[in-house]
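EI: anyone free to look at a 150-residue chain?
SC: sure, send it
EI:
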Amino acid sequence: MKTIFSNRSSGPSVDSMLTPMIDVVFLLLIFFLTTSSFQRLEKQLPSASATPPQQATQGVSKEPVQPEASDFNDIIIKIGNRNGSLEYKLQDAIVADLTQLESRLITILKIRKDVPIIIDPENSVAAGEAIRVYDMIRNNGSLSVFLVAR
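SC: here you go
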């Protein structure tokens, strides 16, 4: 008995049946990519209307107060140019020089390495000085440093 094999099939090919399904999968992929957000929510910077912490009225304690990890939301370092010399402010408190700023930041980073540190130089400050502060912070182990640009 002789069997006849034919190259032509009577039904549609498998390739033509998969094409609409692949189109639908790509449309769903594009839909989910465009509707999802990949950006992290930005933290709200402290406002100028924030109130300073209450001072103790009974006197100064002899033991140094260790800050807790919850005390640090954002650390803001302002770099200004006063009378031809640089002025550093850490949380609006004037710091004498870069080495004192570094020692204070090391203390903070021992408690919490992931605290966001924001460097805010004035327009009159050279970019190299802001980068020097940025490098100093990164070299001491900070995980998130931000530079304000105007």
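EI: The two ends are 89 Å apart (CA to CA).
SC: 👍
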